[in-house]
Amino acid sequence: MNAMYGFPEYVKQASVQAVCSPPGDRPTMFADPVSHQFPVHSKAATLVSHMFFLANEAQVNPKLRPLIRGRLDKMAAYWGIAGDVEAVRVKHARVQKDAVPDSRYAIVIASDNGVKDRRYPLRNAMEVKAAAQWFENHLDSLRTEFLFTDRQIIARNILRKAGEYGADIGDYTETLQKSAGMGVGSPSKIAAAIRNRVKAADRVKPGLAVLFEALANKVASQPRAFLDPDTATKLATTIETFDRETHLLNKYSPGLPSVEDALFNVTHEKLASIHANSCQTLTGSVYTTDQFSKLSFSDVKDLFGDDIASEVCTGLGIDPAKFAEVATTLPRPDAISLDTMMADKGLHPLMVTSY
């Protein structure tokens, strides 16, 4: 106890009886009059009892805790040591906080002097749900305070702990997954969002406007390159840096979506919900069955020949479900050709994964 809290002189100089053995062993001499625990018959005994109570509160009958705490406070005031008791409580809270790993907080900010600011504990399902709700309700202010990559870490921390504790965060999952970068966006919409930023921003340097137009063109013409999660995160960081410098953070709208809504709009949870109506080719491209309905008989025939065209066609039209079955079995060279044809028609994969 002394090593943890540091005893004042009146405790160091007190006898064992003054600390541990009330005269007469009367119930009124204890903060817990039922079990005769936590003696308060002297100034030294009262302070030490506070220390033991704080260290062992979890083992005390919950119904008795308010009574014991109240009697300890009353006797601290009686002996004139309320200030010492408060100092003990502050030290105890600091020790308890330091004992909890950083991974059990949504936000951990380390200052230059090594002091950590840890916010929103994630120690149980209830705390995780509270953190998820806070994230949802304060996303606008979070964008101002934290960079996208920082928000990404916060969201992933909450999602990871939600899975660990089985927390019910259904109402907030979509926002968290978008912020965690767990989703994909439409390349054409991403390109439009980039171009609209240049139009909406005031006094954009000509060179920067040219760079962003080139970036928009690259996203539109090479969409597969930006479906990689790491590349998408870098793109999100680049776009949001532009938003900060041009004061667009608080001007988001359907035509000027946030990076979360532009780049990660179709979350992994949404992708899972449409899994039954999607397929993956040997290039790792994931398409919905409905996308194949945009292909014509001649498209398939010209690319894959009469046999496959006959197999996947019903009358003069494509049967998208049959084509999806064939697409998953195409050799890699043919799967690459399929990706090229789909891209030419503006039918980009929902996402690209390793196969």
Could you explain how this protein is built, in words?
This protein has 355 residues and is mostly helical. The protein folds into four domains: 2-98, no CATH class; 125-179, no CATH class; 183-268, no CATH class; 274-352, no CATH class. Helix content is 57%, strand content 10%. The protein has 20 helices and eleven strands. The chain has helices at residues 2-5, 9-12, 16-20, 43-56, 65-79, 82-99, 125-137, 139-145, 148-165, 173-179, 187-200, 206-221, 229-245, 259-263, 268-273, 289-292, 297-304, 306-312, 320-327, 332-344, and strands spanning 30-32, 37-39, 105-110, 116-121, 183-184, 266-267, 278-280, 285-288, 313-314, 317-318, 351-352. The strands form five sheets. The chain has a three-stranded antiparallel β-sheet with strand order 7-8-11. Strands 1-2 form a two-stranded antiparallel sheet. A hairpin with a 2-residue loop joins strand 9 and strand 10. The mean pLDDT is 85.
| Strand order, largest beta sheet | 7-8-11
Quaternary assembly? single chain
Spans where pLDDT lies below 50 across 5 or more residues: none
Distance between the termini: 58 Å
From the spread of the alpha carbons, the general shape counts as elongated
Number of helices: 20
Q: State the domain count.
A: 4
Q: Structural class, judged by helices and strands?
A: mainly alpha
- Round the mean pLDDT to the nearest integer and report it: 85
Q: Describe the biggest sheet?
A: 3 strands, antiparallel
User: What Rg, in angstroms, do the CA atoms define?
Assistant: 32 Å
Helix percentage: 55-70%
Strand fraction: 5-15%
Number of E strands: 11
